[in-house]
Amino acid sequence: MTTPLIEVSGIGKSYGSVIALREVSTVVNAGEVTCVLGDNGAGKSTLIKILAGVHQHDTGEFLVDGEPVRFDSPRAALDRGIATVYQDLAVVPLMSVWRNFFLGSEPTIGFGPLRMLDRRTGRETTKRALSEMGIDLRDVEQPVGTLSGGERQCVAIARAVHFGAKVLILDEPTAALGVKQAGVVLKYVAQARDRGLGVVLITHNPHHAYPVADRFLLLKRGAPLGHHEKSEIDIGELTRQMAGGAELEALEHELHGGETT
Fold first, then answer.
1. Domain range summary for the chain, segments of one domain joined by +
2. Can you name the CATH fold of 32-46+92-255?
3. 174: pLDDT confidence band, cut at 50, 70 and 90?
4. Whole-prediction pTM value?
5. What residues does the ABC transporter domain cover (predicted)?
């Protein structure tokens, strides 16, 4: 049996008296997408911050390649191959696509105080990496702020893949996008999966999650609401659970004055 890239078991996190996450378990395998679903306040952000090394868990076990870990920084997570693309993308809008692609890891030529930015290598590498992901930009010198939201998400995904990520965590990548752009981003999520990466997709939209995910973790108020393999649940039931189907049924019954049919 293949060891999961990431496995969390009974993970919990508290901030003072506030319990943000409790008893959450899931796995992330190579070449698969684990989708974490939940409304605002469900605990999705807390979970990914633990996986990304922003916060440490208080309870439970966090394994990477079968080894217990407790990251003390995002750099520590990145060093273990866990790359996170946040919703705001952390890009510099007025800087070119290729400069954003290499931000913090710029290629240089020369030695010591004579080192200079290697623009040619930067442009060529960026164009090639984007092309390998099926992203065709007219000019990698154009400011990244001129790209659509979907294109910017795709550049961020290609960057993580290029720099050797084994696990790609995507924080609500389709939240602010239209139907067509969301579809483009989901296509690149599938491409990252097909290249052997383990993907954690955070979303509140089951219709975006279902086409690409292999398993679903549903969270509500920091606790697991359900954990399903794709073969165990259809889109209708996933949507019902996500929407709080039992609560909605109770509300409808109450609004109809307790009538039965």
1. 32-46+92-255
2. Rossmann fold (3.40.50)
3. confident
4. 0.84
5. 6-246
